[in-house]
Amino acid sequence: MPPLRAGIQSVEVGYALLAALAAAPGPLMLRDLAAAAGMNAAKAHRYLVSFQRLALVSQDLATNRYDLGPAALKLGLASISRLDSVKWARERLPLLMNQIGHTLALAVWGNQGPTIVHWEESPRAITVNLRLGDVMPLLTSATGLCFAAFMAPGESLHPRVALLMDEELARSQRLAGADLPVSRPQVTPLLAEVRQRGLARVVGSLLPGVGGFCAPVFDADGHLVLGMVALGSLASFDVAWDGPVALPLAAAARQLSSDLGFPGA
């Protein structure tokens, strides 16, 4: 952390009002807004007068309720337009690596499907035949299952996911004896579990002896922007849903989603 430097305390105090409005489900009366910001109503009102002059806050004259103003919207949109989700995720991987102790990766949706765009090996890395730019299968990788489950809202499949999935299912049908889903109905419960858990998992299906998780990261519009991946040898990689790999990975993805503006994080 950089050293603390002298600032303007009144700016920091007043920001509590803006933060309270941002967190509220709708416009607030003065007394409720002041209480949420931890100050008395008279003090809050003085700040709100200045914020109204700057268009950071607006007041409905019919109800006397306060809400964020057009200048706050402009600031928010400018901030969102400059976000780089992959850059932010990469910056957080070293800390996550210290928590998990296994190889981590980032994946985004590319022209051919979920694509690895960053790879960070742990000191106890396993040898895997994966490289930057590799496209992950939808049905046998945690990354693929994550994107298949969350690319579209609800229980529907994104059209691009559906097209690739049907191709994979057709290949599965030709592999007699392989323990792979061969129809959409067989895929449905797999994706339902991913949505319920908020996390995708595979155990040895992509690479023998290797387990993996993938956690979704969403933007302010609720769109899936990337997957955070952890994988390792089943000799040391804990595949429990509530284990020391899954929980920190899911928490990191939720925090990044929140920082990107996703309200459901």
Strand fraction equals 15-25%
Number of continuous helical runs:
9
Instruction: Count all strands and give the number.
Output: 7
Evaluate the radius of gyration.
23 Å
Into which percent range does the helicity of residues fall?
A: 40-55%
What's the quaternary structure here? single chain
Characterize the main sheet: 5 strands, antiparallel
What do the pLDDT scores average to?
A: 88
Sequence of strands across the biggest β-sheet: 4-3-7-6-5
Uncertain residue segments: none
Distance from first to last alpha carbon: 25 Å
Structural classification: alpha+beta
What would the principal axes of the Cα set say about the shape? elongated
H/E topology pattern? HHHEEHHEEHHHEEEH
What are the defining features of this structure?
single chain; 265 residues; alpha+beta; five-stranded antiparallel β-sheet; two-stranded antiparallel sheet; 7 strands
Structure notes:
With 265 residues, the protein is α+β, with helices and mostly antiparallel strands. The protein has helices at 9-23, 30-37, 41-53, 70-81, 85-100, 142-150, 159-174, 184-197, 246-259; strands at 57-59, 66-68, 103-109, 114-120, 200-203, 210-218, 224-233. Strands 4-3-7-6-5 form a five-stranded antiparallel β-sheet, sandwiched between helices. Helix 2 packs across helix 3 (41-53). The chain is elongated.
